[in-house]
Write a structure and sequence with these properties.
4 copies of one chain form a homotetramer. Chain A is an alpha+beta fold. The first copy, chain A, contains 17 helices and 19 strands. In chain A, the strands form 5 sheets. In chain A, strands 2-3-4-5-9-10 form a 6-stranded antiparallel beta sheet. In chain A, strands 1-19-7-6-8 form a 5-stranded antiparallel beta sheet. A 4-stranded parallel beta sheet of chain A has the order 13-16-17-18, with helices on both faces. In chain A, strand 2 (29-31) and strand 3 form a beta hairpin. In chain A, helix 1 crosses helix 2. The two termini of chain A are 21 Å apart. Chains A and B meet through strand 1, helix 4, helix 8, helix 14 and strand 19 of A and strand 1, helix 4, helix 8, helix 14 and strand 19 of B.
Chain lengths: 499, 499, 499, 499
Amino acid sequence: MLGLVGNMGLAHLRYPTAGSSANSEAQPFYVNSPYGIALSHNGNLTNGEELRTYLDEVVHRHINTDSDSELLLNLFASELAAYGKSRVNNNDLFKALKGVYEKVRGAYACVAMLAGYGIIGFRDPHGIRPLLIGERLKDDGLKDYMLASESVVLKAHGFQVYRDILPGEAVIIPKNSMVPEFKQVVPMQSYTPDIFEYVYFARPDSVLDGISVYRSRLEMGTKLAENITHQFKKDGLDVRKEIDVVIPVPDTSRHSALQCANSMNIPYREGFIKNRYVGRTFIMPDQKQRQSSVRRKLNAMASEFYGKSVLLVDDSIVRGTTSKEIISMAREAGAKKVYIASCCPAIRHNHIYGIDLADNRALVGYNRTDEQISEAIGADRVFYQNLQDLIECCVKDNRIKDHEMELALTPVVSRDDTIDSQILTNKTSPPIDSFEVGVFTGSYVTGDETEYLSFAERARAVNEKIKNTAKVNRGIESLDIEDVKASVDISIFNSGDYS
Amino acid sequence: MLGLVGNMGLAHLRYPTAGSSANSEAQPFYVNSPYGIALSHNGNLTNGEELRTYLDEVVHRHINTDSDSELLLNLFASELAAYGKSRVNNNDLFKALKGVYEKVRGAYACVAMLAGYGIIGFRDPHGIRPLLIGERLKDDGLKDYMLASESVVLKAHGFQVYRDILPGEAVIIPKNSMVPEFKQVVPMQSYTPDIFEYVYFARPDSVLDGISVYRSRLEMGTKLAENITHQFKKDGLDVRKEIDVVIPVPDTSRHSALQCANSMNIPYREGFIKNRYVGRTFIMPDQKQRQSSVRRKLNAMASEFYGKSVLLVDDSIVRGTTSKEIISMAREAGAKKVYIASCCPAIRHNHIYGIDLADNRALVGYNRTDEQISEAIGADRVFYQNLQDLIECCVKDNRIKDHEMELALTPVVSRDDTIDSQILTNKTSPPIDSFEVGVFTGSYVTGDETEYLSFAERARAVNEKIKNTAKVNRGIESLDIEDVKASVDISIFNSGDYS
Amino acid sequence: MLGLVGNMGLAHLRYPTAGSSANSEAQPFYVNSPYGIALSHNGNLTNGEELRTYLDEVVHRHINTDSDSELLLNLFASELAAYGKSRVNNNDLFKALKGVYEKVRGAYACVAMLAGYGIIGFRDPHGIRPLLIGERLKDDGLKDYMLASESVVLKAHGFQVYRDILPGEAVIIPKNSMVPEFKQVVPMQSYTPDIFEYVYFARPDSVLDGISVYRSRLEMGTKLAENITHQFKKDGLDVRKEIDVVIPVPDTSRHSALQCANSMNIPYREGFIKNRYVGRTFIMPDQKQRQSSVRRKLNAMASEFYGKSVLLVDDSIVRGTTSKEIISMAREAGAKKVYIASCCPAIRHNHIYGIDLADNRALVGYNRTDEQISEAIGADRVFYQNLQDLIECCVKDNRIKDHEMELALTPVVSRDDTIDSQILTNKTSPPIDSFEVGVFTGSYVTGDETEYLSFAERARAVNEKIKNTAKVNRGIESLDIEDVKASVDISIFNSGDYS
Amino acid sequence: MLGLVGNMGLAHLRYPTAGSSANSEAQPFYVNSPYGIALSHNGNLTNGEELRTYLDEVVHRHINTDSDSELLLNLFASELAAYGKSRVNNNDLFKALKGVYEKVRGAYACVAMLAGYGIIGFRDPHGIRPLLIGERLKDDGLKDYMLASESVVLKAHGFQVYRDILPGEAVIIPKNSMVPEFKQVVPMQSYTPDIFEYVYFARPDSVLDGISVYRSRLEMGTKLAENITHQFKKDGLDVRKEIDVVIPVPDTSRHSALQCANSMNIPYREGFIKNRYVGRTFIMPDQKQRQSSVRRKLNAMASEFYGKSVLLVDDSIVRGTTSKEIISMAREAGAKKVYIASCCPAIRHNHIYGIDLADNRALVGYNRTDEQISEAIGADRVFYQNLQDLIECCVKDNRIKDHEMELALTPVVSRDDTIDSQILTNKTSPPIDSFEVGVFTGSYVTGDETEYLSFAERARAVNEKIKNTAKVNRGIESLDIEDVKASVDISIFNSGDYS
């Protein structure tokens, strides 16, 4: 977290994306010229190389890291410096942001701070990555504001009233007035949040772009149940006779799996238990660690598997290594048959907007049919959600939000208290009916990204080499499959200047 | 962890028990006279004060801390010193342990290490706290051994074959022979493990004294369902009409709650979601933290509560503060009625064997009827498991263990491989049919503990004062309800002396 | 030290100067726009406030600290940015430095690094603070270079050949060519090094601006002896009868004191011994620390004082507190008479060029005659060096340098080897015959500094308040007299780009 | 420092001695049985191996380290345990110490603490290593006490009144009474302090066994001057014509050298200056560090050497490597002739009492005549102090102590105040007229130590091997000659029990 300047703060935890893992830097980034600006961002730019050249050759700014945030910060700084003004105002900032939008391609949700002025938030014109603003009433009757990438972060700090920043929109909260000003800096090109947030990435208790992650996941369970039932029926089989028990792969898929089991009227069991023993191991040098990371993290309760046909439900299948291990554990525990279902369709393409799943060639779904995938991971059969179903799961929650939104919010302040909030102005925001789904289709909302994909592949190869060298040096045999969900939060807040 | 001496190691993490929280010390403890001994223990002694006097006045050993482990270590050391031998053997050690057993009262599972000799494990004559020994086949065909307080710890280190140390039994694994020698040092006085391990304390994937924690918890759900159904029926009501949804209080009660819901054929929902946001809060000094620790840890999914009669299921109800808060959250989320069920009976007495729940006066069950408890925590009604049912839940798993044990173990080594294991010698260990249940009845297996209880009360008062002073000094308004499950492991291993 | 970029590095340790002690920052400072520049400096600017306003209002650069180095860096950066070039060359850099020289007033010796380009050194037009460049022949036959504020630093790193940067001169060593280019960026306004370097500040084994610190200090002893002898003679007294022994105040004055004693043919004794016991004290809370910091640092050897008339020799007398304490210690040890001599004249004015002695009102010499000073510090008589004598001490060493310089340098490379060194080009540098002596006269080489002095006084008052608050908060009764000599080094080196 | 128990404390810094450097442990050592005892010691035992066997086989105490302090502590503990008393008194402790004295051979000055009882000091029967007790009057009129190995340590803590513990004497200061009780536990076998303390080891401002280190060093200069003058005269030469300047090797020899120069009426000059630059070096990987550690620590001032015949004065010549380097530096600086004088005789034997100089084979004086030594170190001639002269230097100071002692002490309390001090009871302590001088003669006060010498040689070989391996692993070419004077203090204090 940046040292507090006045009464503002900015925090960021972001997972390194493709091409950057080797030497990315701690966010936020800071420049002192002009004015002193700090910036954090969430997402991934697809024209970073071009921006890098521009910054070096045209505006002569030295970039120290591979981080896109440093690019965004310096672009913003150079746009702002162009006016050469002693003191800027909201309009200058919005104009500078317009310049940034025009140069940048990709997914970005940004929070920034201008020293002595205030905080700023802006989001890419497709709304791929989420960004919200929250409002909090303080004891002294004044309000303060926070920008964050998930609603739970706002709620955890007591910002009970919030709304999403729209694609192409920006907001400034000057510390003097503490009145947020919103502006549609460039036209919304689409309103297509990354559907992977709902499938896997976001916390279940978050509400993003008006869609409850929790309820969309319940829907995924319902749709998945319909799909599986239908597929067995096509083969003349009754799902209830084919599957004895539904077992989630903890933790993300729990809600979908429970709903899926309920929909099919098949028992649901927590057959895998997370191993909570985290002690340092005494393993002697001559006893190599043969257990995979999955086996160290999960224990199978044999009584739930023994002699049964089980349906494992996971949020998604990426490389297939985890699925393969889990299926193998189920069989060792005595399962007769092991089916596996994924809450989302087969992942066959790179994720290019900030969630670095894997290179597409490393994806088990890459150039494989469902049958081939099933065979690769050792399942009796694999079931994937249909893409159209997945979209409907999210859209459905969206449609009903008017009624239930309040509940999801469980605001402490009453409805009437919040009616005059400065920020609840986008109640009429267009309902979302499409999403960024490139990982499934290979077609990305920002257009043709062939060039970026080949750049990322080269960058990844370089990083892989660095990592492997590191592994060899440390005597590590195989790196754990890292959980990319880890910690990806950006946030900033402004409680005004009362000093 | 103690610095490795030869090829042995000893680790311990233990939660401070009553009377000791102010200044207990990191385990293990060590004395150099005689021979060099290190010891860790799990449990609580009820005649510690008497032992302290004995050590000071009779054997003149200086005790630096309030830890019972230091007492046990010095008792063992002084017994051993009495022989005045240059080199001890297994028999000397067993004899010294007999001396320890004769002087000590309470619950204790101990692991110790004699420098240059080997490792030792022993367990109190009632078997109150668990202790297991695990065996592992190494790449070189040799075996090594580990002692631990939970089977999952053994399994996590690859010790797939294991058995419980019996009440009053001890085991020595000399580093030269690496052949474990077992001995019933004193007669088993009872075989009564602390039932609270199954209810709450142990990890669900552990098997303790032949009883699967996971399956005993499922049974608790079944029995609880019967009980609740019965109680509604007594009032002429149908439980399926009175309760719309069963919701667990995460995480311990999840398995019981799911089974309970299934048994009653009522929908099960994960209506509370653990807040995984762990960022540092930016809360300004003038904005006092009004949210309780429960509210910071859990979010209620409004759609699961709104307009419904909900049954919350928790493992136990201790002080009642958590229950009260959770019930209040359920109501705020729109619940029509809020019932709460506890997987164990009402806790009305001190836990004196190493799990420091609370002083009995702080227990919501202390001197209150069920109706009074229900009122105190704001529930529409509270349901408790019957004690006899709870015991049966554990006994039942015990009875069926012969068949299913292997499955629960999922041993990598086959049955045949393990048949000649040196340690699988207590296959005919007596089936357990009673347990330590003093927290429910006030009657403890070690006999009348009135004196200890009044000592503990005084000690607690002193500690409370220290804590409060600390709180005032730090400006803390109210301490979080600490999770006593935190980290309570002891373990030791011996891979022999090949140097 | 800045992380190494290529094969260059930059290090800095600098003592905070007037007005900055409260929140100065670790050097070096860095800006990424333009090009990436890091800079460290030694000295003090007297028009810092004006520069601060200029940077904010005209070039819109945010200054985070009170450090003059940050001002110099941003000035340089803004001058360089003005050209808007993609790639700069030596000429651009010299031009930019010219811009810096024109805006800045005060004392400054700077080392800077341009990312990917090379290192830069420049020195104020009066040469107040020292700056040297050293050359080193590497094993591969190539040369590398280092810039530093003292010759001993260069020698310690094996840079045996070196020369001073002249007032108003700059040098650039590009990493590609590794050929240093020197340029007289602005005309030399005077060549007046701060005489206080020779009196007190520099290490005795340094040679600055061609003057050996060691030998100038010997001269100070000779001149002081003449002066003292003369003064006694004026009163009709023989110095050898009046003074029994000459005793230095360790460590700086040792060389002068020895020479002074020899010149007068009076015994020299090390009567004060530095206390080398540095253990943590066990002093109990009720035993207040009554010993002053001087008494903790020095022990008087009674046999050297008892019954004798002693002449104490110190480098300078600043606040007088140390002198007073030492004189008192001498009397307690039995001295009959205690005279004290200072190697420099009475200090009666602020030091404004980077050695923060004290506010002038805190100087014992402020508005006091010699007799009044003598009384204030409890001496029987105080002797000061004459200013003209002091200047001659330094000039004399300067005159003889042609012959002896080599010896002082003890170069490993022979004379012939170094003859064609790229850097030995200022052999004809003008002999120095005047110095910055403002602390003695109140007249400063940069002109009328009345405005700065009143600013510094205000800043000091603010800092004093902050310090006092800190002291009160920590329960400190009196702060030690800090040794401003502590650690004041800047240096940078460039070993080229061979990758 | 051990955590304070009551109002007592114990601190120790000790340099590892022969055979222990590889794995010695931080002092003090502690045992909890019996009673809780902590102990630190200064010195070296010569029958450590024998004691180690005794502790293992007879009293069964596990020794973890190579430290003699651990041996002494466990011996003392086992003696004390033999009484089997619940509470001990002074007599028990003195009796136990008698048992320790009877088993131990070598040099030892010990401070110990008995938990809840008080502090203890005792010193070997030859008084080889120093130990003093100091008294301090507190603000409340009560007195407290401190034991330490040097008087400066006592004075630094305000203990102005002190006396030496005699050989074979012990003192106990119980925390209840705070009245020190002294007892001659075993008869004094000799009163022979290690003369190396005065030559080199002790701080110059210390007074040990009534002898001022400072004044004995002045005497060494006088005697050395007589000796050198005499030797030149034997060759028909006038020392004042042969030697132009006397130059000390800083820091220990400074006082002797100055006195030596004065005695011969030859100029004294500080021609070597300690390099106070301590910055981290930037030396590139390809530039090996060719400068020896001596050259990094000292700079020669060429003007003091050029064209002159110099006499270098050092406290002692051990391995000769430092002398050789320094002589070579003097020649490089232009010295015509380089003589070197040592304040003590040639060191030809091991130091076995706690100052690990070097194995005797590594000593330049081992099996070499003065001429051979001179040649080995590159001097024109080497001068050694005569042993009898050295002894007289110390004895002389001793004789005059009655008159001057007070001065050396510069006590704050007046003579009258101290007259009734509990501790000033050994005013009639026998004047010392012999010393431990084994390093010069090979004859040690504790008798024939052949067996120990051969043990130490083997131990040293093992340690050397470990060090070399470490060096190779770290890529270090040659370890610096470490300054064994570093940090060798033991101390303990007792301010009573007023709580």
